[in-house]
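Here is the promised in-class demo. Please do not try to memorize the tokens; focus on the logic of going from shape to residues.
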């Protein structure tokens, strides 16, 4: 019976001792993180290891670049004429239609002219009679048989009749409606048999060779402009087509309200362009054939400044401010700070910071390396387990 009594008295103390040891062991494990667990030390080191950011880079090279100034407006024709009637009568002959190309002074239409011919004939008849009377009076005047006043009055009457004849001849000439300029008939507003009155609107004409675009250029670019400077013209109405233009005129004043200068752009090959078309005008300000080119894909915008990330030898990047000298649609020429052969990040720079570690597409993937290392570690652990099992 004594052994049983001894067991009962000793059991609670033993349990308390085992519980205390377990608490101490768990506390040590909690304090050390998972250091004593298999692989715990390696996981802690991996968390501290810097991860390389995958990026794509491009090498700075030399090539051509040009600086341009873009603007847009509607085409207009400087020579756009309304053809008006200059006398009255009925339209008897129509010689052109809309779309007809005509030369200056070409006859477009004819009016009935019997009234004008009659008026001219009467004026010529009166002039002939007056000339005969003037010759007779002039002979008497030389003989001093008539007064000087009578001779002078006759001279003025003769001149008046000459002017009447000229006016009648002009009215007869106006029965032929002629083109005031060379161009194209864009609208006909009359038809055969119409009774035409003086100053009536008959035709519209446009000289397509006079088509221009008026663009507003900021006054800061005024020093870069000159007469004859090349320009390019495109329009959505003719996709894929580009027309050559040039600066035709530069206004001598600056618009105070907008701070711009009116520049007139002429067109060279304008067979397809028409007044009223909405066009994009690109004035070539400067051209370089051997400039350092940085792709616009590399630009990082921060407020009103531009930055790029340049790759350093140790696979780290540096953030550099870039000041553009020239820009075009695809590239930018830096004013300074870069050299041919520099590698600039063009993709993956969204989350980059100055000094960040990066990885290029040709670099080995760290995850593949970890898998290789992890596989070797697991195999080694399995081997160690086999050799350590009998000892336990």
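The designed amino acids, position by position:
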């Amino acid at each position: 019976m004594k052994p049983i009594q001894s067991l009962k008295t000793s059991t609670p103390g033993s349990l308390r001792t085992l519980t205390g040891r377990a608490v101490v062991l768990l506390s040590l494990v909690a304090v050390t993180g998972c250091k004593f667990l298999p692989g715990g030390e390696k996981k802690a080191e991996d968390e501290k290891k810097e991860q390389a950011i995958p990026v794509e880079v491009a090498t700075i090279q030399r090539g051509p670049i040009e600086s341009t100034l873009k603007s847009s407006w509607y085409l207009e024709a400087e020579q756009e004429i309304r053809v008006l009637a200059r006398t009255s009568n009925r339209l008897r002959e129509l010689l052109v239609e809309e779309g007809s190309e005509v030369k200056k002074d070409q006859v477009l239409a004819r009016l009935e002219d019997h009234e004008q011919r009659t008026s001219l004939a009467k004026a010529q008849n009166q002039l002939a009679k007056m000339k005969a009377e003037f010759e007779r009076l002039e002979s008497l005047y030389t003989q001093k048989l008539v007064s000087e006043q009578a001779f002078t009055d006759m001279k003025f009457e003769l001149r008046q009749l000459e002017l009447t004849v000229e006016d009648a001849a002009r009215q007869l000439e106006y029965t032929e409606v002629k083109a005031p300029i060379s161009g194209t008939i864009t609208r006909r507003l009359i038809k055969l048999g119409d009774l035409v009155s003086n100053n009536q609107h008959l035709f519209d004409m446009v000289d397509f060779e006079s088509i221009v675009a008026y663009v507003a250029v900021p006054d800061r670019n005024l020093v870069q402009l000159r007469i004859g400077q090349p320009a390019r013209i495109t329009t959505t109405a003719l996709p894929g087509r580009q027309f050559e233009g040039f600066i035709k005129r530069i206004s001598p004043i600056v618009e105070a309200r907008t701070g711009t200068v009116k520049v007139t752009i002429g067109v060279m090959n304008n067979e397809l362009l028409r007044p009223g078309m909405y066009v994009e005008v690109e004035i070539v300000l400067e051209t370089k054939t051997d400039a350092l080119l940085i792709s616009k894909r590399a630009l990082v915008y921060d407020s009103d400044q531009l930055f790029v990330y340049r790759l350093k030898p140790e696979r780290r990047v540096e953030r550099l401010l870039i000041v553009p000298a020239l820009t075009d649609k695809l590239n930018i020429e830096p004013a300074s700070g870069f050299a041919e052969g520099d590698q600039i990040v063009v993709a993956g720079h969204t989350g980059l910071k100055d000094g960040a570690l990066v990885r290029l597409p040709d670099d080995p993937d760290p995850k593949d390396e970890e898998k290789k290392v992890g596989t070797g570690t697991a195999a080694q652990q399995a081997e160690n387990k086999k050799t350590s099992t009998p000892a336990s």
